[in-house]
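We emphasize that the prediction below concerns an isolated chain of 414 residues; any contacts that depend on oligomerization or on bound cofactors are therefore not represented. The input was used exactly as deposited, without trimming of termini.
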Amino acid sequence: MNLNNTSNKVLDLPKKELLERTSQFIFSTGLNDGASRLCKANMKYGLAQLQIIQEKYGFEPKATFISSPDETISRNNFRWSSGLGYGGRINWGNGKEKLIFLNMKPNCCGILVGGLNELPDPFDIIKEIDKIKSMELYHEDILINWDYGVSNHFINCFEVKNLSNEKLPPYVFLMHGSAPEFRNDLHGVGLYVDQSPILKQMAIEETTPFGVQYILTDSQAKEYLKFHLKALKFSHIKRELIAKQIFGNDFNVICNQPHQFLKDYNNMYLGCCCTDTSCDLVENNIFPTVLRADIACYLFQGKQNLSEQVIKTFKFKEAAEKFGVMDLLKNANILAHGGGYSFPDIKRVQKVLEYKDQRYFVCELREDTNKLKIVRNVKELQFEYRGRDVILKSLQLDLGSIMARLNPIFSLKL
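Result of the prediction step, given as a token string:
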């Protein structure tokens, strides 16, 4: 059977051939390190599930993953076991096909960049944060959940080195946070199918040879997308409200961009900035790329991407034309939102063992390829954050242009 022919039934393909097919729908711009390779090894299983379900519901089985340079693993066990990596755009339609895959778990996370004319005293910020955490702060009758000490959420301050003609302040702060208030069904259907009984009851459970996916179609997909938009707006406002509580009116919002959200029915930006400024969910054309606390971060102006030259150079053209996703690649509009997790000891994924609906990734170690690390839940792996290589790769791919370098002064994680 010709794996390159989308008219062939994917349901009729043996598992091995289907995985070979879906691997061709992964267009990776990552660093190809251990975490990047783990992402790709897992992602073909996720795309196989998506494509099987697409075909079952009468859509073209062409679910695609276009990764950003911070391509990595997801430390959320539910998402990872669903065959999903992190750091890129997942597409499964033209944006209007009412089919939503809930296992992606959009959390509406984003980063606010606020401009300051004077450098704040970190002790003053700590005192203000302590006040906020001891009070009940609401927006539209919803109690705000302080999540700036959770996971990789933070508040950081930087000195600005302006590299553009844009007028920028001498200092900025970054606030990284999401909308945990909307994950369960306290304020509606909920964002997370594994945390909202209402959403799980609404969802259709689809079992595939590679795992279970929860989906919504038709009017229920419409209801979910509407709720997601409410959560996304809440997350956006929440970052600004907390910033005002901490910094008063002494700052201006440079940008407040999401990087983990549904753009529409068929596009998920999963740990990746969307540079499509025609989209109402994208505030402006300024995007932060945040690296480790000990090295500079950057503000980018985004570009429409990927360019024809990049598509050709990275040898994406043949597969993109075969599967009819060239326009998708030319309008990927991706930009790394951070460095992403890395595993310095892992060199590559040698193979994947499957047992009782579980996947075990057999990884060669960098220092001694004869030694293997076999992992199932990557959340438990010790990790680091990547550095400037992500910035260099973003520039190499012409995903955007640097506006400013942000030199770290202090980082608060409380």
